[in-house]
Amino acid sequence: MSTTKVPRDSGFMLRENCPQRRIHYILNGKWTSMVLYALSHGAMRTGQLERALPGISKKMLTQTLRSVEGGGLVERKVFNVVPPRVEYSLAPLGEKFIEPLRGLYDWAASNAAALDELERNMQENTDSRLD
Amino acid sequence: MSTTKVPRDSGFMLRENCPQRRIHYILNGKWTSMVLYALSHGAMRTGQLERALPGISKKMLTQTLRSVEGGGLVERKVFNVVPPRVEYSLAPLGEKFIEPLRGLYDWAASNAAALDELERNMQENTDSRLD
DNA sequence: CGGGATCCTTCAGGATACTG
DNA sequence: CAGTATCCTGAAGGATCCCG
Question: For the whole model, what pTM was predicted?
């Protein structure tokens, strides 16, 4: 049978398990990148982080910290003292991650206007239940 | 009354509407960044994009395209021909966005191992309904 | 082919209460 | 102060059908 020559696209493709997809396990989380970013300014205690990210729930904070710790992005240091004291800091891997992230954040800072539009459009196009 | 000197944290804080938070309107979306990334390799037709991102639903593709278009990140070009032809390409603003994003993706490519851990941890710590 | 409109499922993530 | 355990809701996003 004639093997029909399918006109192969441009060839570019982001397969299911390519790094570009998998990194979104980090980026999709509402807090992960911001926690890392916060820590890029120096080690912080749990409470400090909580206050540095207004709106974060205790649950999400610890959950996020656990995962980045498990991923080797963050170091966790526990001091055995009366009022518990735990400090988090960026591991080398995390430092590397921050560099391009900072680039993105810089872009954001320089294009607040575009972000406005984005937000607006994101919401408009999202199903939008019209009572 | 003695104005109790609260020991002001480190001073670092990511307020509710800072750019670093707002850019996550883009990053949180499951497809947005990848669509932009795909387009950074040249203009593409709708169908091409769909195939370049296996697993994306038609709904999400158009929805995503609408929002990035509205945000001025992407240009949409319609050709008035018999079988409709629509081409998307990065707008200058989008090009700028891609640069740091590529940095992140490079990081991902160089640290697949860390991504493994991350994924695992993300899932383990997520409520985890135990039947 | 490109894309709009619905419907439905899932699960990220917030609130709250409790422990050491 | 740091952390765990539930419970519950909203909304992201997939499947499907229809249209020009």
Answer: 0.88
pLDDT bin (cut points 50, 70, 90) of residue A25 is: confident
Q: Identify any residues that bridge with A88 across adjacent strands, giving them in sequence order.
A: A44, A76
Tokens of A123: 């919401």
Taking an 8 Å cut-off on Cβ atoms, the answer to whether A72 and B34 are in contact is: no
Query: Which residues from A are below 8 Å from B97, CB to CB?
Result: 104, 107
Residues of chain A in contact with residue B63, where contact means CB-CB under 8 angstroms, are 125-126
Closest residue (Cα, C1') to D11: A126
State pLDDT tens for residues A76-94: 999 999 899 999 999 999 9
CA–CA gap between residue B52 and residue A45 (Å, rounded): 43
State whether A105 and B9 contact (CB < 8 Å). no
d(CA B32, CA B29): 6
- From B100, B19, B118, select the one nearest A28 (Cα to Cα): B118
